[in-house]
Amino acid sequence: MSEHSQPGSRPGVIHDLGYRHYDGVRDGTATIARTLFVTGLRHAYGLGRSGKSKVMPFLLLGMSVMPALIVVGVVVLTGGSSLPVSYADYTNQTQLLVSLFAAAQAPVLFSRDLRHRSIVLYFARPLAAPVFALVRWLSLTVAVWLFMSVPTLLLYLGALLSGLDKSDQTSALLKAVVLQVLLAMLIAGIAGLISSVSLRRGFAVVGSVMALIVLTGVITAVQAISAEEDADAVATAVGLFSPWSLYNGLADAWDAGVETFVPVDGAWPLAYALVALLLVAGCLLGLVARFRKVGSR
Amino acid sequence: MRNVTGEQHGPGPVITTAGLTKHYGAVHALTDLTVEVGAGVTGLVGANGAGKSTLIKILLGLLEPTGGHASVLGHDIEHGGQEIRRLVGYMPEHDCLPPDVSASDFTVHMARMSGLGASAARERSADVLRHVGLDEERYRPMGGYSTGMKQRAKLAQALAHDPQLVFLDEPTNGLDPAARNDMLRLVERIGSEFGIAVLVTSHLLGELEQVSDHVIVLDGGHLLRSSATGDFLQRTGSLLVEVVGTETERDRLGEALALRGLTCRPRGPMVAIDPPPPELAAEGVAHDLIRDVAAELGLGLMRLQPDRRHLEDVFLDGGAHV
Predict the structure, then answer these.
(1) B120 in contact with chain A, both atoms CB, cutoff 8 A
(2) How would you list the strands of the sheet with B197-202, edge to edge?
(3) Among the listed residues A4, A9, A7, the one whose alpha carbon sits nearest the alpha carbon of residue B11
(4) Strands (DSSP E) along B5-152, which ranges?
(5) Distance between CA atoms of residues B82 and B61, nearest Å
(6) Which residue from A26, A113, A118 is facing B115, i.e. has the nearest CB?
(7) What does the domain layout of chain B look like in residue ranges?
(8) Which residues in chain A touch residue B127, judged by CB atoms under 8 angstroms apart?
(9) Topology of B2-232 in CATH?
(10) Rounded CA separation B283/B272 (Å)
């Protein structure tokens, strides 16, 4: 122990049989951030938390995997020539479950520390407030992406099992994965920002549901009506205002197996991609600003 | 890492501030504070709003000062915030524990957030929870804890990564007298036995009298005084005398002593005698005189003792002067 090199410098050392100092390695900031990321990802699925906090995420995950299993069963048994639903469209069809998962689990990562003020204990440690905010967002992004990718991978395995063309399936899968990553970044940013501002879990969940589910419903309705009325520009432009319509529009433009009411073409795909990236950046700036402010209180 | 830390227990100060100032608009939380804090336990005293918590947050690098400089464990607060936060522990004043996590899990997690590996964090947490006195209850969710247990859990997370310095913000807040004594003994042990420098705040001066080696008094963001606890409590040269009987006997003694050249004033049931004039200042002369006068008057002496001042007196005096 270091006491030997400093004889007599620590008062009470001779009697100190109880307290032991720590002489070992201390991790750098990057390792601490990685630990926080992994913990956050586990917590999003209720792992390392109480038993009942695992119910909601795994129930939702089960519900989103079930149709994929049925589809796989049917395709393998009947030997169809293609999957009845594309990878990207499967995520779109289960959008209610994905949005619910994000809305329910974002408060775990973004509200809890603020509400119970344990955030102060994090900020008294090496990680700075902006890094903390970004790592939390990354945890939720990966959690949401995993939620979408598990059924997608099941479908892919089923397609390969039933002997569908491997290269076609793989390119469709990769397109879907890229789109899902972008969607997960959007959803995690929006739900995270809402949860970091409204600290009561109920309000946070309702806020995220409004932003992710109700708003998307309204936009889909507006798109359907304007397509019916032949107001194509309106139908496409309105799609810029929800993460799901952005996802669908980009999937349509990229030929990833989703059909929107009006084809997204011309300069629109670029606009969709730009808006999606700006929205992600905006959410991140908002999160960083929010945690900075809390950190200096 | 510890070899770096060894230096801290040398003679150098653990914290130094120079002209530290923090203004929130028109509110002056700290004004031109220049102090040094050494090893051992240092008490930071002041009423609510005196700037104690602001000072701690600035030292942690969480708040930017409006002016002035400070360094903690040899790191400048402007540039070395992250290094400082690696080496210090912080126990905030307010509640900061998630109710659905056990103290054991929480302390492990917080140790990891300070950079300890998984197994080291588990080992240290078990150690530290034992030291703060959380036994079986450490495995229960903290939402069901009493205030005393919560304070212990908060202290455990502050010590989990074996810091060189801990900031304890009002650790005795809300505790009953027995738990308060336990906490103070623990604070004393952290400073002496654990060899960790402690900066502990309180608005109760009597508490710090018991445990700290050094006391800093803040009032309205200004430094009132900073010196060793012993200096605060130094003998003043005054004497206190009490005789058997009522106020009549007390006054008879006081008047008789005044005739012999001592300045007396009543204090409760006792007579307080100011430091004696030069002709009576020799060792024991004043004592003999008091004994003789009491005998002449036929009064029974009950008590004759040096008048030690309390921290409160210093605080009140200082407050009156500023």
Answers:
(1) yes
(2) B88-91, B165-169, B197-202, B41-45, B214-219, B222-228
(3) A9
(4) 15-24, 27-33, 36-37, 41-45, 67-72, 75-76, 88-91
(5) 8
(6) A26
(7) 2-232, 237-307
(8) 19-20
(9) Rossmann fold (3.40.50)
(10) 18
On whether any CB of chain A is under 8 Å from the CB of B162, the answer is: yes
C-alpha to C-alpha distance for A273 and A281, rounded to whole angstroms: 12
Each residue of B21-60: pLDDT tens digit? Answer: 999 988 999 999 999 999 999 999 988 888 999 999 999 9
Q: What share of chain B is helix, strand, coil (3-state, %, to 5)?
A: 40, 25, 30
Establish whether this prediction's ipTM goes over 0.90. no
Q: Which two tokens stand for residue A1?
A: 């122990």
Q: What contacts B203, CB < 8 A, 6 or more positions away?
A: B45, B46, B47, B48, B50, B170
Give how far Cα B231 sits from Cα of A252, B209, B314, Å.
80, 11, 10
Nearest to B23 by CA among B76, B78, B67, B53: B67
From B98, which residue of chain A is nearest by alpha-carbon distance? A116
Nearest to B43 by CA among B213, B233, B186, B183: B213
The 10 Å Cβ neighbour count of residue A189 is 24
- In SS3 terms, B116-147 reads as CCHHHHHHHHHHHHHHHCCCHHHHCEHHHCCH
**A118 and B1: CB-CB below 8 Å?**
no
**Domain B237-307 top-level CATH class:** alpha beta
> B163 in the Ramachandran plot: left (φ > 0), alpha (ψ -120 to 50) or beta?
beta
Could you report the average pLDDT of every consecutive run of 10 residues in chain A (297 residues)? 46 60 94 97 93 94 96 88 92 97 97 94 95 98 98 95 92 96 98 93 94 96 94 93 96 93 92 97 98 86
Tokens of B192: 């002496």
Name the nearest CA neighbour of B304 among B238, B237, B242, B233: B242
Size of interface A-B (CB pairs under 8 A): 126
Given CB atoms, is B95 within the 8 Å cutoff of chain A?
yes
Chain A positions touching B12 (Cβ under 8 A) are none
Name the amino acid, one letter, at B94. Answer: H
Residue A263 makes CB contacts below 8 A (sequence gap 6+) with A252, A253
DSSP 8-state code for residue B52: H
User: What is the spatial distance between Cα B40 and Cα B214, in angstroms, rounded to a whole number?
Assistant: 8
**b/e per residue, A232-254, with b = 16+ CB within 10 A?**
eebbbebbbebbbbbbbbbbbbb
Q: Is B190 exposed, middle or buried (0-12, 13-18, 19+ CB in 10 A)?
A: buried
Question: What distance in Å separates the CA atoms of residue B218 and residue B223, rounded to the nearest whole number?
Answer: 5
